[in-house]
Amino acid sequence: MDVDLVVPLKHPRVGKSRLRGAVAEAEHAELVLALAYDTLAAVTSVAGVRRVLVVASDPASVSELAGLGVELVTEPGDGGLNEALRHGAALLRDDEPDGIVGALQADLPALRAGDFADALAEAAGRRAFVADLQGTGTTLLLSAPGALLDPRFGADSAQRHTDSGAVRLAGAVVSLRSDVDTSDDLEHVRALGVGKRTAALLPDESVPLG
């Protein structure tokens, strides 16, 4: 069964505060946008992904992402990450009441489409999630068909999602677990190979995805 994804995104100027200093300050917003661009370029190429809805605090600031075929909507108020995800999930559910809805982080620039497709196959219609490399955070959360997404992102979200009944996917490979919050994370994904937009902002030794 196909999946519809919600991707939350802050204004690039204020997003990823712990990543400041990884590139020149004037390029920080461009880096945040590049991380999202490469993440979305990967998932929109997956046959099992039907729609991608970006819930943005300022859609105009990320309007170029629409060129990837994603839809942009405005984040409702200041309710935070989980509220933005619930809003996006509700919009998707209105159009596809019995479908699978997923929440994906926008900072996975090394993501391989095949890895994402494998995670969908492993989930097999169950409410499930992928933990980050540290095992405490969450990079992807999937609902069961027609069921609530029930996002619980934030501190210790992996445990929170487990406690809520979601299945931790054991086979998820490194590219889907490698989100970028710090300069060390950026070095890690650079070694894996990042998308072209991210690679263009990093030192020459960066390895772009094919």
* Percent helix: 25-40%
The CATH topology assignment is: Spore Coat Polysaccharide Biosynthesis Protein SpsA, Chain A
The structural class is: alpha/beta
Strand order of the largest sheet: 3-2-1-4-6-5-7
Q: Which percent range describes the beta-strand content?
A: 15-25%
Q: What is the CATH superfamily label? A: Spore Coat Polysaccharide Biosynthesis Protein SpsA, Chain A
The radius of gyration over CA amounts to 16 Å
Q: Distance between the terminal alpha carbons, to the nearest Å? A: 28 Å
CATH class: Alpha Beta
Mean pLDDT: 94
Question: What characteristic shape results from the CA principal axes?
Answer: globular
Q: Outline the low-pLDDT stretches.
A: none
Number of strands: 7
Main beta sheet: 7 strands, mixed
Based on the structure given, which CATH architecture is correct?
Answer: Alpha-Beta Complex
Q: What's the helix-strand series?
A: EHEEHEHEEHEHHH
By DSSP (H or I, 4+ residues per run), the number of helices equals 7
Number of domains: 1
